[in-house]
Amino acid sequence: GDSVTQMEGPVTLSEEAFLTINCTYTATGYPSLFWYVQYPGEGLQLLLKATKADDKGSNKGFEATYRKETTSFHLEKGSVQVSDSAVYFCALGYTNAGKSTFGDGTTLTVKP
Amino acid sequence: EPEVTQTPSHQVTQMGQEVILRCVPISNHLYFYWYRQILGQKVEFLVSFYNNEISEKSEIFDDQFSVERPDGSNFTLKIRSTKLEDSAMYFCASTLGLAGLQETQYFGPGTRLLVL
Hints:
The complex is a heterodimer.
Chain A: E1 3-6, E2 11-14, E3 19-21, E4 23-26, E5 32-38, E6 44-50, E7 56-59, E8 62-65, E9 75-77, E10 86-93, E11 101-102, E12 106-111
Parallel strand pairs in A: 2-12
Antiparallel strand pairs in A: 1-4, 3-9, 5-6, 5-10, 7-8, 8-9, 10-11, 10-12
Chain B: E1 5-7, E2 10-13, E3 19-24, E4 31-37, E5 43-50, E6 53-57, E7 65-68, E8 75-79, E9 88-95, E10 106-107, E11 111-115
Parallel strand pairs in B: 2-11
Antiparallel strand pairs in B: 1-3, 3-8, 4-5, 4-9, 5-6, 7-8, 9-10, 9-11
């Protein structure tokens, strides 16, 4: 079956540091890939997505590229802010409104 | 921007009681979902719903769970007899449901259920 593996957290960075959160997947088909963010006490928000190989999703300074050859979708940001502190989930999903499969989540804490 | 809403935001119940969690999906969406997230764990799929019937469900979604679309706007999750291990955040989601397109699921803010 499908699965998503994220790098273990928690991750603690200083403000303006470079962020990478690794995500790899196994899939039976050709999924879309997503990053969701969950701020403390809130629900899931879609951060970015990519729908096919070599697509790059980007939003709010975050980027991730769909790499079919390495089955990866690593999240990056060049300069993190304190307000980026949250839990980040990598996920995959399919066309025709199939379910999403989530990774375990990575907690990011950014210190001033 | 349209959004998925959920009520209540928090619910505390006694073990063995029935609870109903409510969701209002985005109005023109056709597919609806429930997920749950036990504290500190990953988000897990429970069930998907289309055209007034379940289209897929996970092993978690046993006979204690049921879903319903009682009217044109609400989508509910009922837990018949709650157990301690049902304590979790429950998320509703919806998608537009256009066949052949890469769909984005829009999530609600969640209902935090605590079973005592």
